């Protein structure tokens, strides 16, 4: 009898533990984004309608090609792959464009024959998992393709002109780019979308990237996310243009991660555009608003915006600044995402020019090889450092006169601390900043070199001053020991 209260307490604590299991997490991962049609063609037998000279046509890439290129993605150092949608697409073209991108689904529970079969997808997932890599699949929950049979078969599943005209939230209830807009308040639609998530979960997918969530009915989305979380599926939402406030709101509403578009824009303008780093600092300064800053998806570019390297007229400058951008990305708290080709500074303007075919090692120029080596090294440095991969991030107060050219922050995990310095000046420069002004304590030490290979960046501390010798337009990271 006397044991009962103890037992009751034990049971209660077990119940408590069950009520709040560990949340799905990608902190420490490096995600590589693939658009299968534009990545690698592993099977010429499924190349119906392929015309690689036409940027709006199918180009022949498929799951067999992606599976064959997993060693390449591993060599780069990525630990997870995000595939844009692989669903069976509408057969017809719309606006003279083939559904090569995957965002015009006709059947959410099958693989488009251009990409292969469900068995090919299973083979890919098994190969990825065998290589200890995770798989994130794009999920479309807002719409069907223009020409999908379901549009005529189930008119009640869609918002029509009347709904669009009547509703207050046009983003949600009006078609996005004219696409047949799913009405998530319809119970059949909810059943369909829940079943789609379960279907792909059963194929072994580790995470979902939810497309266009700005345009989806929020009550349904929250319900879907709760089911994913209960099943251990990590969720990454695409709210186009999201800033820190939107990311924070949706992390609270049940998404594990969203893309931080405001940081992408700031990095594009500062690093590639040569404008001051103050705009990056002002985004990073809002980090504490985020419930889970280590989960937020960080990127230089993706398939919906012009390529990062397109921000310079000059190819060589774009390559240099992409190397800077890749190193900078790997110093930040969050989940870095690399869009296929950014690791070689592939160029391209708005869609579809930003979806040029991926080229691999034997097709690279020496300069592209150099960008790749920088990317590979930066990822390796991040993965080797607990501070860089999963540590906290603290922005240091840079003196006002330097804030356009210099961004300083620390990353810290356990006993390990790394000082990060981004330098936007065009030429090599030595900065001396009072440690007290940085709110930083550091012991006098011999010269410390940057963690990045082949980079001539140095740090030393003497007499209450921090001295940094930094190359122009680059990001460096220095181990500075425990606090
Ligand atoms: Ca093919
Ligand atoms: Ca909608």
From TrEMBL:
Please list the coiled coil stretches: none
Query: Where, by residue number, does the polypeptide cross the bilayer?
Result: none
Q: Does the keyword Transmembrane apply?
A: no
Q: Top-level EC class, please?
A: hydrolase
Q: Which domain of life is it from?
A: Bacteria
Annotated ranges, domain Glycosyl hydrolase family 13 catalytic: 33-382
Provide the reaction this enzyme catalyses: Endohydrolysis of (1->4)-alpha-D-glucosidic linkages in polysaccharides containing three or more (1->4)-alpha-linked D-glucose units
Q: Which residues constitute the signal peptide according to the record?
A: 1-19
Q: Which SMART domains match?
A: Aamy
* UniProt KW Ligase keyword: no
List the InterPro entries hit by this protein, alphabetically. Alpha_amylase (IPR006046), GH (IPR017853), GH13_cat_dom (IPR006047)
What EC number(s) does its UniProt record assign? 3.2.1.1
Gene Ontology BP annotations: oligosaccharide catabolic process
Keywords from the UniProt entry: Carbohydrate metabolism, Glycosidase, Hydrolase, Signal
Q: Name one GO molecular function term.
A: alpha-amylase activity
**Protein family according to the UniProt entry:** Belongs to the glycosyl hydrolase 13 family.
Q: What is this protein called?
A: Alpha-amylase
Q: Which organism is it from?
A: Deinococcus metallilatus
């Amino acid at each position: 009898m006397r044991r009962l209260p103890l037992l009751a307490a034990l049971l209660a604590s077990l119940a408590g533990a069950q009520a709040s299991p560990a949340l799905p997490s990608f902190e420490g991962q490096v995600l590589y984004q693939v658009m299968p049609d534009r990545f690698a063609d592993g099977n010429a037998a499924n190349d119906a309608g392929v015309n690689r000279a036409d940027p709006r046509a199918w180009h022949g890439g498929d799951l067999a090609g992606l599976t064959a290129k997993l060693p390449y993605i591993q060599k780069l150092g990525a630990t997870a792959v995000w595939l844009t949608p692989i669903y069976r697409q509408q057969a017809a073209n719309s606006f003279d464009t083939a559904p090569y991108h995957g965002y015009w689904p006709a059947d959410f529970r099958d693989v488009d024959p251009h990409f292969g079969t469900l068995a090919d997808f299973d083979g890919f997932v098994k190969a990825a998992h065998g290589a200890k890599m995770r798989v994130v699949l794009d999920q479309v929950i807002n719409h069907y393709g223009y020409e999908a049979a379901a549009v005529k078969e189930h008119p009640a599943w869609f918002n029509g002109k009347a709904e669009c005209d009547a509703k207050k939230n046009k983003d949600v209830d009006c078609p996005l780019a004219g696409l047949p807009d799913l009405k998530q308040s319809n119970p059949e639609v909810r059943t369909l979308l829940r079943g789609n998530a379960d279907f792909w979960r059963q194929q072994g997918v580790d995470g979902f990237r939810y497309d266009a969530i700005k345009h989806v009915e929020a009550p349904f989305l929250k319900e879907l996310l709760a089911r994913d979380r209960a099943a251990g599926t990590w969720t990454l939402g695409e709210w186009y243009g999201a800033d820190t406030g939107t990311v924070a709101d949706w992390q609270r509403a049940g998404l594990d991660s969203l893309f931080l578009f405001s940081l992408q824009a700031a990095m594009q303008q500062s690093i590639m555009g040569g404008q001051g780093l103050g705009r990056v600092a002002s985004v990073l300064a809002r980090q504490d608003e985020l419930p889970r800053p280590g989960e937020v998806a960080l990127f230089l570019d993706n398939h919906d915006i012009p390529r990062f390297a397109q921000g310079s007229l000059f190819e060589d400058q774009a390559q240099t600044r992409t190397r800077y951008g890749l190193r900078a990305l790997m110093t930040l708290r969050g989940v870095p995402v690399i869009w296929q080709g950014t690791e070689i500074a592939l160029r391209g303007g708005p869609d579809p020019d930003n979806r040029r075919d991926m080229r691999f090692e034997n097709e690279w120029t020496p300069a592209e090889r150099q960008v790749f080596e920088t990317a590979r090294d930066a990822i390796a440095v991040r993965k080797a450092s607990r501070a860089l991969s999963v540590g906290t991030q603290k922005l240091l107060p840079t003196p006002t006169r330097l804030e356009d050219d210099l961004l300083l922050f620390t990353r810290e995990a356990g006993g390990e601390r790394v000082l990060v310095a981004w330098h936007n000046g065009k030429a090599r420069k030595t900065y001396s900043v009072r440690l007290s002004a940085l709110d930083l304590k550091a012991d006098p030490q011999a010269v410390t070199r940057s963690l990045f290979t082949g980079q001539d960046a140095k740090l030393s501390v003497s007499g209450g001053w921090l001295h940094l010798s930094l190359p122009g337009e680059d990001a460096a990271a220095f181990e500075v020991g425990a606090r």
